[in-house]
Amino acid sequence: MRYTTTKVAILATCLMGLTLSTEASFAEPLTIARIFADPDLSGPRLREPKFSPDGRYVTYLQGKADNKDQLDLWAFDTRGGSARVLVDSRKLVGAEEKLSVEEEARRERQRTASLRGIVEYEFSSDGKRLLIPLGGDLYLYDLEAKAEPVTRLTHSASYETDAKLSPGSRYVSFIRDQNLFVIDLRTRQERAITTDGAGLVQNGVAEFVAQEEMGRSTGYWWSPDDSRIAFTRIDDSPVQEVERFEINADGARMFRQRYPAAGTANTKVELKVVDLGTAKISDIELGLGDGYLARVKWFPDSKSLAVQRQPRDQKKLDLLKIDVASGASRVLLTETSPHWVELNDDFKFLQSKPQFIWSSRRTGYKHLYLYDLDGNLLHPLTSGDWMVVGDGSENGLVGVDEAAGRVYFLGSKDSTLERQLYSAPLTKDAASKITRVSREAGWHDAKLLPGGRGYLDLHSSPDQPPSASLRKLDGSLQHWLLRNALDATHPYHPFVSNQVAEKYGSVPASDGQQLNYRLIKPSNLVAGKRYPAIIDVYGGPHFQNVRQDWMGGSRATQGLFRQVLAQNGFVVLTLDNRGSGFRGNAFETAIAGRTGKAEIEDQLRGVEYLKSLPFVAGDRIGIMGWSYGGYMSLMALTTTKAFRAGVAGAPVTDWSLYDTHYTERYLGTPQNNAEGYKASAVLPYADSLHGSLLLVHGMADDNVLFTHSTRLMQTLQSLNKPFDVMTYPGGKHGLVRMPQQGRHYYEMVLRFFERELKAPNDAS
């Protein structure tokens, strides 16, 4: 038989398809056990990347091959293009590392509770030393030392937290036993700046709501010239005391926790400044009342403080300039909103001019503006119906190349599903001259190299695990730090041929705004067959689930679990409803005054879309979520009849039990919006529970207190409503990230949906 070119091509294609099919048939199935095993399925990743001040090194934290959660400190030489381990965490503290109660709580706030080893570090200003907190003590690493580069700075029985090198690198500061301490590195003399920290009083520490809800994890700030420290003195005595039991496998402990529930008193916060030369401590009058100290920053001259202050209702934000010598203050600018003003860290002083960059949502979308030091607006730097916004946070400002007169920022200009790096001039026509810098489609985070000589690009896409590279300012490649290609050596390679591609799209909300979704079909879809579907939801503020990244970015475990569900015969839909993050004021403020209504309406649009698909069994749809997503699952099961089954993990059930800053931002106080609180709670709808419920909660959760679930349990029991429940002894709010508890949770969820949603003839 004679083959034409076309026939040869067809035969080659068929043979290739046969080969792929054969490979797929022998491909290793993705399991939940493997998701939590080592090495990390997403491959190695760079955590906390930083540039040395001279730009020669990129330092970062990376997990060990035999324990992805045990982090060591690495350094990449930008000249030679090679990487090496700088500090092996096990050599300093061994395999076992015990955290103090305060440090455990702090890491829970920072979502790093599952990590051990080196979780933070800092460069000295001259780039010669690194400060490394580890195992409750502080270490200095000398990059130029010929031998014994590591020096231990502290040897106390107490745990040192929030350690910092002063801007001039003369001092190391830290918090110990609720007081602020300083070590002079020239003399190695340690001294206590404060001594009254005890009981309900803490110095230099961020209060609970600042850490949990305001994005402020510290309570002290060095002046640029090393001469002063501004610090908070917080007093929890006004805050109501809650008796909280942490139930562990070996017994229960009772904590009297000061928890500022909605409508109750907040922590008393004072701001003080210590002069290190005279040891004099001065009080700074803020006029806070029952409001919030949002941010503190020093002016470049070290003479004045830039303080951001919010009233209790969060509808206003003042930027104050406070002279520390006289205490005189004045308002430089004020942001207002009929709903709430979002906090961020996109505030930067220029070094070459008396100007600063500030961000605002005054147009309905967050953009950058240039001001002089007296608070006069010079001109906008960006504009349009899109956001200056970063990788999963409000922060989008990357840096400024003052020599070239350009600002660099992350944003959603090209697509709400992506984050790209852009630049604009600092001139008046900046907003019309925005240039895209990053090249690859997908999700970028970036850090500007010192001196504006390039940037570190952290990138992922649905087909590319997180990679890291050094780039020129035109986006071209200089060095790979971490290519992370899905080749035969990659941990995920055995599962690639079984991976189900995600489909992205949108459906309209009732007000016409577009609701983005990501959809995964079951693997090996059979024509004419209808499959059960699961909506994987978060739905709350400040988060975007639908993004063109690798497995959901920081929530890669959840993304991998969606793959497990698809490979076990489920359709999985994730939809970002109104109220979720980074889409602009009109989209995000739909929940003002009442939660659980607009969000559920939008998820029902997702249900309608699922039912329109020929391969979905419309009568077998489930829903699952954690935290706000757990709340959404409960609202879906109690206010609609669209779902056959749902999993509610660590859910809020009554917003009056949740904290002040978060809850009152959206609902006001229970005293001024009683109806809104009632309508937004789960408990009033409990009698209408429809479908099977699996309720899950950690028994030591200090964020969404276990009380939320116990109240629901009692209510459902009194109504004789059947439900399943799983509690985790010792489990905190982030238990799904912990290896043992997380694996158990996801395997349980899979079994639950297999039981509740699959028909008898469905194969896994």
Radius of gyration: 27 Å
Q: What structural class results from the helix and strand content?
A: alpha+beta
The coarse silhouette is: globular
Beta strands, count: 44
Question: In percent, how helical is the residue content?
Answer: 10-25%
Mean pLDDT: 93
Describe the structure.
This protein has 764 residues and is of the alpha+beta class. It is 18% helix and 34% strand. The radius of gyration is 27 Å and the shape is globular. The two termini are 44 Å apart.
List keywords for this structure.
764 residues; alpha+beta; 8-stranded mixed beta sheet; 14 helices; disordered N terminus
Q: In a nutshell, what does this entry contain?
A:
By secondary structure, the protein is of the alpha+beta class. It has 14 helices and 44 strands.
Question: What is the topology?
Answer:
Blueprint: H1 5-25, H2 32-35, E1 47-51, E2 57-64, E3 67-77, E4 82-87, H3 89-93, H4 101-110, E5 116-117, E6 122-123, E7 129-134, E8 137-142, E9 150-152, E10 161-165, E11 171-176, E12 179-184, E13 189-192, E14 201-203, H5 208-213, E15 220-222, E16 228-235, E17 241-248, E18 251-258, E19 268-275, E20 281-284, E21 292-298, E22 304-310, E23 316-323, E24 329-336, E25 347-349, E26 355-360, E27 367-372, E28 377-380, E29 397-401, E30 406-411, E31 420-425, E32 435-436, E33 443-448, E34 455-461, E35 464-471, E36 477-482, H6 493-496, E37 502-508, E38 514-520, E39 531-536, H7 556-567, E40 571-575, H8 585-588, H9 598-612, E41 616-626, H10 628-639, E42 645-649, H11 660-667, H12 674-680, E43 692-698, H13 707-718, E44 724-728, H14 739-757
